[in-house]
Amino acid sequence: MKLNGGQALIKSLEMEGVEVMFGLPGGAILPVYDPIIDSPIRHILVRHEQGAGHMAEGYAHATGRPGVAMVTSGPGATNIVTPLADAMMDSIPMVVITGQVPSAAIGTDAFQECDIIGVTRSVTKHNELITSAQDIPRVIHEAFHIATTGRPGPVLVDIPKDIVDPNNPNSAMDWYWPDSVDLPGYKPTVKGHPRMIREAAKLISEAQRPVIYAGGGILKARAAEALRELAELTGISVVTTLMARGAFPDSHPLCLGMPGMHGNYTAITSMQQSDLLIALGSRFDDRVTGKVGAFAPGAKIIHVDVDPAELGKVRRPDVPIVGDCKAVIEELIKEVRQLQATAAESGGIAQPDRAPWDAQLKQWQAQFPLHYDQGWNEGDALKPQFCIEMLRDNSPEDTIVVSGVGQHQMWSSQFWRFNHPYTWINSGGLGTMGFAVPAAVGAKVGMPGRTVWAIDGDGCFQMTAQELVTASAERIPVKVAILNNAYLGMVRQWQELFYEERYSEVYLSPDLPDYKMWAEAMGCVGMRVEHPDEVVPAIEKANSIDDRPVVIDFRVDWTEKVYPMVAAGTSNDNVILGPEMGEGGH
Amino acid sequence: MAGTAATGAGPRHHILTVLVENKAGVLARVSSLFARRGFNIYSLAVAPTDDERFSRITIVVDVESSPLEQVTKQLFKLINVVKISELDPADAVEREMMMVTVNAEPGTRGQVIELVDVFQGRIVDVGHSELTVELAGPPSKLDDFEDLMRAYGISALQRTGRVALPRLERQAQRLPNTGIRSLGKVG
Ligand SMILES: Cc1ncc(C[n+]2csc(CCOP(=O)(O)OP(=O)(O)O)c2C)c(N)n1
Ligand SMILES: [Mg+2]
């Protein structure tokens, strides 16, 4: 069958099972947009290409399927660099297709030419310039394979206009679909090494103060159930990192919640004092470890990751296991069962008495809960944490929560109760302001039956709010709660604590823009909430609307800070629980 | 030692041989990974292999082995990198080639030719007052020769960067050790 390159590209996407793509056309990609009219693939026209990238990410987060975005050359391509970097940091499977100037014009500074392969080399798992129409099915198939296997990540495919333009003879190709990939340098390890897994089971059976340190890799490997089985089998408590919230239910008695810079005291301290950290799909990020040299000094480390480069990157593991989290955990469970059975037969005990450790954890939890005070007197400011708790308590249990970056993100991760995997979507590694609105749109597209709440900051909202126009136009009824503290709050917090309250360029204003009017101008329902007693009615109203997006402007206390906090670069032994403990945490 | 300064590769230098797919842009991918970690590449040689699908890149870097381990692991992650081997300089044969155009006035020409002979180089071009010499050998030998020629006046010099292969076994009692640590692709 003879096709032109543009048709071959769209057909290749169909062959990959793509049901939706996010994008915005332009000169160089025009010929690929034409066959979209005849394709069953749904195309969502964004208002800015960054939106397309984050929508693809949100879609991938929520569904586990690769997100797809398509943009034109030059500025279209550079506009999607931030989402690529974001997806790279958070290991999100995504395929981005960029138009490129015709082959003969490459390198001539042609109109809208940009060396996007060069620009995105370090922020993609792989990128490739297709040089011949005949290669299109093969390269697209490889792109999806690379994006979704091993450690997932973004792949960019750059397509010169001449090979997709039916008016150009270079675009002629004979259609085929490759039944395999030939990538001699790419063979991700799935199965863990049996000897290492035995070694790990042995360490687990000997540990007195073990903690499971679960990271985003659990979700990528779809290993939440396996994790739960391992935790219950061994009775070991679990911390879930910012990227792993929901990977283990917060309601589970073994759940310790989130560790790290704004983690809770018990999660942080359990790791510090543990004698065995079982790191599953986590990467010892600096926001988790604090000062690395002082992190969990007495702990042996079992580190499971599908990416061999993570093992020993930050902390040298005692037992390194390269492999897919799900496959490794399942093997580990078998080994642990075996050890337990052997111990039972010989009348011995399977593991040391961990009751004192478990009691210690419970005591910390009771002693150091997260806290805030919502006053109910006339003039008492509305607390952001209260808004989040009310959102949580008045929305469906399986609501998908998407956040921006800043204080509101930390409060959301702390105060929501994540009891299901894939209900928490945020930008962890790159910390991209503006992520929430488009990512929420992508999540809702992928999971139309679910309630999707973006909990956003006022600063973040202003970066990508235009995608609510997309949401209205495409009838994607997401809901947005702006925790409007009139500040770049997280930066303000650092200036307050570490720059002697010298507030440099962080004030935004509570009512410029007028968020309610702005929301309405974008086709959404807009609401404003200023008092605690208006919170629940507004949320109930928002949750009852399902035919258009809703935005609630919550005017919250601008003085509120995120606690607990471990100051950057300091040891996790110095958890600052609240303002009463001073700034330095000593 | 002048030689060390010339090649830049100190006693702790590492030799990586990287088998890559023979595709556009692969060299840029490899070298930018080193740049990103702030590692200086002292020499780099690329050539096709006997299999036309692949090229071999020989890279000499001078870093502690632990950061190097991170770089090699990151290199593995490049889709076009097929295999990486780290050669211990003590267990490797290293060779490099150099061409140098040196001042050789009638008064000094004899001395220059004598040194070329001693170093087993070859004169590949002759001008009125200059000679171009080709010399291949261990990098340190090239360093020494370069040093000696400097006294006469070098007007042009090019070195290829080194290539290396593991040293072969000779002593029967030695444990099998090819001197090449294959880091392979995991799995
Ligand atoms: C694109 C981008 N620019 C700058 C920053 C630095 N930064 C981190 S949090 C933050 C403040 C965010 O303000 P807002 O959205 O109002 O959230 P808040 O902290 O007030 O809840 C800034 C500027 C960032 N993370 N991303
Ligand atoms: Mg704010």
UniProtKB/TrEMBL annotation, chain B:
Positions of the ACT domain:
15-89
The UniProt entry, under PROSITE patterns, shows:
ACT
**Recorded GO CC terms:** cytosol
Q: Which reaction does it catalyse?
A: 2 pyruvate + H(+) = (2S)-2-acetolactate + CO2
Q: How does it assemble?
A: Dimer of large and small chains.
Question: Which superkingdom?
Answer: Bacteria
Family that this chain belongs to: Belongs to the acetolactate synthase small subunit family.
**GO terms under biological process:** isoleucine biosynthetic process; L-valine biosynthetic process
The name under which this protein is listed is: Acetolactate synthase small subunit
Which keywords belong to this entry?
Amino-acid biosynthesis, Branched-chain amino acid biosynthesis, Transferase
Q: Which NCBIfam families match?
A: acolac_sm, PRK11895.1
Q: Which source organism? A: uncultured Acidimicrobiales bacterium
